[in-house]
Amino acid sequence: MSESRTQLRDMLDIAQDEMVMRDRIADLLEQGPKTIPELAEILGCPSREVMVWLFGMRRYGLVEGIGRAGADGYFQYELMKRP
Amino acid sequence: MLKPDADGRLLDYDVMVVGAGVAGMETAASMGDMGYRVLLVDKNASVGGRAILLSKVFPTLDCASCIVTPKMASVSHHPNVQLMTYSEVDAIARNSDGSFAVELHKKASFVDFDACTGCGKCEEICTVAIPDEYNYGLVTRRAAHIAFPQAVPKKAVIQRRGEAPCTFTCPANVKASGYVSLVRAGRYKEAFALHLENAPLVGSLARACYAPCESDCTRGEKEGTVHIRAIKRFMVDRYYAEHPEPEYGPVENQLETRVAIVGSGPAGLSAAFYLARLGHQVTIFEAEREAGGMLRTAIPAYRLPKDVVDRDIKNVTALGVEIRTGHRVTSLPELKRQGFDAVLITTGASDENSLDIEGRDLDGVVGCMQFLHDVNVGKLPDVKNKTVMVIGGGNSAMDPARAAIRMGAGRVIINYRRGRQEMPAHDWEIRGAEEEGVELMLMSTPKRFIGKDGKLVAVECISMVLGAPDESGRRRPVPIEGSEKTVPADVAVLAIGLAPSTTDFPAEMKNGKGLLVANPQTLQTADPDVFACGDCVTAPTMIINAVAQGRRAAFYIDRRLKGEPLDVPFDGVLDKTGKAAVLEEAKRFVERRPVPQPALPPDERRKTFECYEKAMSEAEARQEAQRCMNCAECSQCMECVSVCAPKCIDFAQKPTPLSLNVGAVVVSTGFKILDPATKELLGYGRFPDVISGPQMDRLLAPTRPYNAVLRPSDGKEPERIAIILCVGSRDETVCNPLCCRIGCMYAIKQAQLAMGALPMAEITIYMIDVRAFGKGYNEFYEQAKDMGIEFVKGKVARIEQLANGNLALHYEDMLGEGGRKIREHDLVVLTVGFLPNTDVFSLYKGGELAADDFGYVREVDPISEPARTNVDGLFVAGTTIGVMDIPDTVLHSGAAATQAAAYLERSGGRQ
After folding, report:
1. How many CB atoms lie within 10 A of CB B778?
2. Which whole number is the average pLDDT over B848-869?
3. What percent of chain B has pLDDT over 90?
4. Residue among B642, B633, B636, B632 at smallest CA distance from B121
5. B717 at the A interface (CB within 8 A)?
6. Has residue B343 got a pLDDT over 80?
7. At a CB cut-off of 8 Å and minimum separation 6, what does A73 contact?
8. Distances in Å between the alpha carbon of B436 and those of B103, B135, B401, B431, B903?
């Protein structure tokens, strides 16, 4: 079982990391679009937590999904502007 | 008896409707259409209730926004409906004439709704992320936020529990929570600017403040306090490295008024800074050769390098403040003759208390302030290889002791008359001194200094024992006769307390302790043009206290000079946020150990006056800032204020209580959603891809939190979705025997929408049965089957996570082959039950509002008099009597409006 799908931190606890992690996500997406599992692997964080941070960024126009999901079911995300 | 208002009306409104979901909006609009004056109250920031958060409605699959937003607009613009959002009803009681007296309050939104344009800039820049309740916790929002895109009114609110403990505890109200939040967000320049708003000596405080903020940090109740001062140190070091000079100059609007400040310590410098920012012409008179007061002459460089003091002072002088050093003020009238309109005395407390014992005048016996002054101005006392005894146990004893170590003393002893527990010095200071080799000689006091040829050679000490408590409550040390012993010593430093430096001022300005007498609120002395603050008023205390007093003095001096009354409060702060709720939330948090503050090892420290605390790296500072628990939610980083074009943010806003009279009341406070985690075996809260029905609706809504229908664990489009009916409804194990009435259709709607969004997905609904009782409902069910949605008759007992991360459903197959089955899915939706909102029963204080057997408000006669409760004139609308679908809610609301109107006509309550 992949670790990224078993650990479940409290949302409030995850939210506290958003302001730091979004800079790190922006750094990675600046190098090119990535899927959530790709980001999670590089960051060493569970995918679920990357979901929270990434979609916190999307909400404010910092990132956007590209087109349709790939054959593996995952979207790629690109950086629209830095935080 | 009610008294009529100016228009002759007895009542403020004909009817008050509590709760602005579908039922409340429908009732209010209907009664408004009938000509009644309606007050519609909702505790949320927007009307719309839960329905506006839906994706679509069943069975028509009309867009929920298209259904609900016209109602939201209607009540917002209706001439007879007054909307009061973000407001809570506290009590409803009956007046003697049959009408109702209502107590309610508008919650503090910290936003002027009249000015807010709903632009959302505050939300974009806010530095505090909070789980978004409008998306049922799937994503975050900000502490400053607009509820959701279709919100009515579309106004921002700032979620704030009170003052964060760290900020509340700081005497200067420095917004520690704010700059920590800004550092966490990587906005260091903004963090520095925020600090300047409350204290200009940022660098000095980053090194030498005793940090009361840290002592009240909530994280301190868990793994250890957040190192707030270390975060500040990183922030200010970085800022000063990038900005050797301040980025600003004198303010544009210069005034003619002149203020003299006597003393350039932290109080004087702070007052000068804030007065100069207000445009006053400020001159500081300093008796020493260099400005800074105690920062310069009392604190050793290993704690506070003097180039940091210099840079802090530039923050003040950049505003045009003149500092005249080497200029001792001995006559206040002379300052007035020189044309100063106001004077502020901030001479501090650097005079020393004397110890009247034999040998006090020997060469080698010095006061600690004299000793430290010499150290700090470079006249290093000769202590090399000598024995130095420091008398006293406060922080002022630690500095000469640790300085003597660095100057090569052979032996340094701190002699204190009580025990270690009783030492007034901070424990970390004592530990630091011990690490560097300082010896503690406790329960001992000097009896006489022994000299030879006029020079100190030894101290005769006597042992002490703690006796009865004195008037301060501390146990008084009592000498033990016959316990005298002689300790060889070359230097004795007296650190036994400081006295105010007020000898230059007339006796009538002082109290018996020599402290200047000033109004504690305004800091004004008996002479209305003379103010005094800092240690010369308060007695010796912390730097941050002096800074706080300086800012306060500037506020009242400014008012005095502008001819404004002084009987106004200085700083409007909220109550301190209680830690209990924060700690309760934090029980679920992962452990976050403090980031160690880099520091020189003790052996290195002993050799140098170099600052022994080192600055954190950027990564360390941000990591430490992540440990902040956002106690108050909003951190007061003030970024929202900086971007708000209409200037509508008001952090001084307080809740506004209101008392009203209304002719009738309709309660439409709705229902609550059962917490799916109570069905523990189904894995909600343990497995991220087990979500609730309301969460699935958000995933399917046009304003969805993700860019598509994705599973929360990793953002993959699900391929095998399970929807489980009757989770926590028809279920005695959670004390909820009722059928939820809408779950079947709600689930079928979601299945149809999911199939539209994910055409390749397999969708299975696990059910006991399907209740399709409404018009078009059975057709809707049949349509779902035709679309390929699978219905499995069987109760799901347990969900487990498989090795591949997918979910295994254990269920009973009741129609097929029978028996226990397991099936794999990658997203599971729990169609949860609903519960009564029992908050409604605490609203009415005139008696008991009757409940039915299930905890919903009881209608007296649902058949002949729907919406009537047992309280005459108090009606109920919509799901407050039990969950129903939207068409039934609208119908029931119509009944409530009709009943309330009839009541008003009968009772003459209409105005």
Report:
1. 14
2. 96
3. 92
4. B642
5. yes
6. yes
7. B716, B717, B719
8. 63, 55, 10, 9, 83
Find chain B residues with C-beta within 8 A of A11's C-beta: 131, 137, 140
Of B366-375, B451-460, B517-526, B809-818, the least confident: B809-818
pLDDT of residue B7: 59
What does the block give as tokens for B445?
A: 């006091």
Cβ-proximal residues to A15 (8 Å cutoff; 6+ apart), any chain: A52, A56, B129, B130, B131, B140
Q: Which helix (H) or strand (E) holds A20?
A: helix A18-30
Name the DSSP letter for residue B515.
Answer: P
- State residue B205 phi and psi, 5-degree precision: -65, -35
Listed by number, the residues of chain B in 668-687 with a beta carbon closer than 8 Å to a beta carbon of chain A are 685-687
Phi, psi of B513 (to 5 degrees): -95, 5
CA distance A59 to chain B (A): 7
A5 pLDDT exceeds 70?
no
Q: Write down the H helix ranges in B92-243.
A: 121-125, 165-169, 176-184, 188-196, 202-208, 212-215, 228-242
The alpha carbon of residue A31 is apart from the nearest alpha carbon of chain B, in Å, by 20
Q: Distance, in angstroms, between B620 CA and closest chain A CA?
A: 11
- Enter the DSSP assignment of B616: P
pLDDT per residue as tens digits for the range B488-502: 999 999 999 899 999
> Length of chain B in residues, anyone?
911
Angle between helix B176-184 and B618-625 (nearest 10): 120
> Do B30 and B897 contact (CB within 8 A), yes or no?
yes
**Those residues with Cβ within 8 angstroms of residue B906's Cβ, 6 or more apart along the chain or in another chain:** none
- Do residues B766 and B792 make contact, with C-beta atoms less than 8 angstroms apart? yes
Q: Identify all chain A residues contacting B826, using CB atoms and an 8 Å cutoff.
A: none
Dihedrals φ, ψ of B576, to 5°? -70, 135
Name residue, tokens 């926004």: B65
Average pLDDT of chain B?
A: 95
The reported pLDDT for the residue numbered A1 is 34
Tell me if the bond preceding B655 is cis, omega within 30° of 0.
no
3 state SS of B810: strand
Q: How much is the average pLDDT of B561-579? A: 92
* CA distances, B220 to each of A15, B311, B450 (Å): 20, 32, 47
**How far is B600 from B617, CA to CA, in rounded Å?**
15
Give the pLDDT confidence of B687-734 residue by residue, as tens digits. Answer: 999 999 999 999 999 999 999 999 999 999 999 999 999 999 999 988
Partner-chain contact A1 B185, CB within 8 Å: no
CA distance B466 to B474: 9
pLDDT of residue B84: 97
- How far is C-alpha B636 from the geometric centre of its chain's CA atoms? 7
Q: Structural domains in chain A?
A: 3-79 (1.10.10.10)
Q: Is B618 helix (H, G, I), strand (E, B) or coil?
A: helix
Q: Which residues contact B402 (CB under 8 A, 6 or more apart)?
A: B300, B302, B432, B433, B436, B438
pLDDT band at A2 (very low <50, low <70, confident <90, very high): very low
The 10 Å Cβ neighbour count of residue B174 is 28
Contact indicator for B443, B465 with CB cutoff of 8 Å: yes
Residues of B in contact with A8 (CB under 8 A): 685-688
Nearest C-alpha in B relative to A37: B714
Helical residues (DSSP H) of B773-865, grouped into ranges: 777-787
Q: With b meaning 16 or more CB within 10 Å and e meaning fewer, what string describes B836-856? A: bbeebbebbeeeebebeeebb
Residue with tokens 């006053």: B280
Q: Quick one: which of B747, B751, B770 has its CA closest to B762?
A: B751
